[in-house]
């Protein structure tokens, strides 16, 4: 785990040429979507067991939620120029990088493994911040979505889960 928190999310993935796999956490509660329009960045911490693990982040709004899909912002290497390593690293993605989403009606955030490969990553402290900055965020400017100290529900009341299509595999 990163920081003072007692737990993190462990994701074991085996993405095959055929199939797909990834992790998600829902931001909506029932049919009420989450209003993230006052936030500017999606922030989390990540590390790999080997280093070099690759994935992409995505988000869905009401429209993409109804399609059962999301808009992706690109491979993690865009935001971590040295890639995922064995040490914890902070990832900060401007919400504008997720494209044409209605941020007043967000449904979920996604970690997707689009390329064939196997590995294990750890993710902690999923957050939205009001500032796009690489410096410390003042207290009160961050909304913690999930620190993984609780089992199934995040701070917004949403659930966590995974998706897959055989022969790819994933466990969280």
User: What is the helix fraction of residues, given as a range?
Assistant: under 10%
Mean of pLDDT = 86
Question: What Rg, in angstroms, do the CA atoms define?
Answer: 15 Å
The total of helices stands at: 1
Oligomer: single chain
- Run of helices and strands: EEEEHEEEEEEE
Q: DSSP strand (E) fraction?
A: 35-45%
SS elements, strand count: 11
Low-confidence regions: none
Query: Could you tell me how far the N terminus lies from the C terminus, measured between alpha carbons in angstroms?
Result: 14 Å
Give the overall silhouette: globular
What profile does the largest beta sheet have?
A: 6 strands, antiparallel
Give the class from helix and strand content and strand pairing: mainly beta
Description:
By secondary structure, the protein is mainly β. Helix content is 3%, strand content 41%. It has 1 helix and 11 strands. The strands form 2 sheets. Strands 1, 3, 6, 8, 9 and 11 form a 6-stranded antiparallel β-sheet that branches. A 5-stranded antiparallel β-sheet has the order 5-4-7-2-10. The longest helix has 6 residues, at 62-67.
